[in-house]
């Protein structure tokens, strides 16, 4: 397994093509806006080296016969699924940010089981190819960006009906030795900090969309691959001289980017789906399930930090014993632990797939993510309530350090008797960072739209909820005689 230092050096060796503010970034590893997100990924390597976290952060791989970083693991049991969620909570607690390797891990497990079933049904050899790819990833302890979401363009139209065919990643040429692809993947978490991009289709496909049914892997610096960095609220604070307090979280962060594939050649050994449209929906559904499970861990860990910050804010405001403050903190804990309970539940109810790896309970995973679309917003609202208005009207770090006005900031922004003004400002900036600043991308908006929009989960809940079986339970208890019912015939579907 790589150390954090080795991970950073491995990225420095790559020729990553990254654009920000209209210019190419010369050194993505050390750019002040990007570096905190890289530090979050580095923490996944650092903790895996520590004995006290070995059980959560590492796992035994039957593929290569070694212990590996759990972020590269194919789940071998429900215990693995549970430890995944616990690991994600730990990572959220340590970084208070998005640590970016979850999408790759979830893609590994979705593609592993899907390619196996594709081969069984169609006689293809995708699973063999993917097995070799996974050995490569595990042996080298790679960070892999799981890339699913396309720009989509006009969402009322299918991929093949779009005015611009590149709005969904698609195959433009099939060669004897591989394929050429073009398009882009949007909202790519941690893409610039990744060694590889592992691409999946974004929706279920019909035959007319078969060119868009494609899955493959390419190095992040492959010819024709480049990234356009996404803006975040308060992001340029990181470029201010001696910025620290104003950042809220100066060490860690996350990022999103658009990844463009401009006529990228992919050799056959790295192609895992090539026009098998019948299996696109299966891959999408399984990835989405795993990633919805993930949110029951990572968002909870970040929530732990936010709850702690809110409790500290109450201390610095001098109101820790106020009954309404206690009640709000209790509610925050209740909501956070409910998210965690769903993540653990869908893991404990997981099942073994024909390919040998384990999949979570899809219904409970979707319930988990549906809760995630709501609860972090309420936790953030309560944190803002407890913090008070000073969180958004507070002067800057430069004002606090100013020889001319610093004493006034120190005097007038002090809170509870005996407390430090600077510490009060640090805590309030952390809450701002999580609720409104750069980390809000991962904690709030991503909670809503990451791993699919709220409606996507509701569709899956309806599909997985087995309403007819529940009706039958009720009929038996109520002793309903169905022969007495004469329902009017349903109109035929047009």
UniProtKB/TrEMBL annotation:
Annotated GO MF terms: oxidoreductase activity, acting on the CH-CH group of donors
InterPro entries xrefs: Acyl-CoA_Oxase/DH_mid-dom_sf (IPR046373), AcylCo_DH-like_C (IPR036250), AcylCoA_DH/oxidase_NM_dom_sf (IPR009100), HpaB/PvcC/4-BUDH (IPR004925), HpaB/PvcC/4-BUDH_C (IPR024719), HpaB/PvcC/4-BUDH_N (IPR024674)
Domain HpaB/PvcC/4-BUDH N-terminal: 3-273
Pfam families: HpaB, HpaB_N
Signal peptide residues on this chain, from the entry's feature table: none
Residues that span the membrane, as ranges: none
Residues annotated for FAD binding in this entry: 189
Domain HpaB/PvcC/4-BUDH C-terminal as annotated: residue spans: 280-478
Highest taxon of the lineage: Bacteria
Gene3D superfamilies: 4-hydroxybutyryl-coa dehydratase, domain 1, Butyryl-CoA Dehydrogenase, subunit A, domain 2, Butyryl-CoA Dehydrogenase, subunit A, domain 3
Keywords assigned by UniProt, alphabetized: FAD, Flavoprotein, Oxidoreductase
Name the record gives this protein: 4-hydroxyphenylacetate 3-hydroxylase family protein
Organism (species): Candidatus Pullibacteroides excrementavium
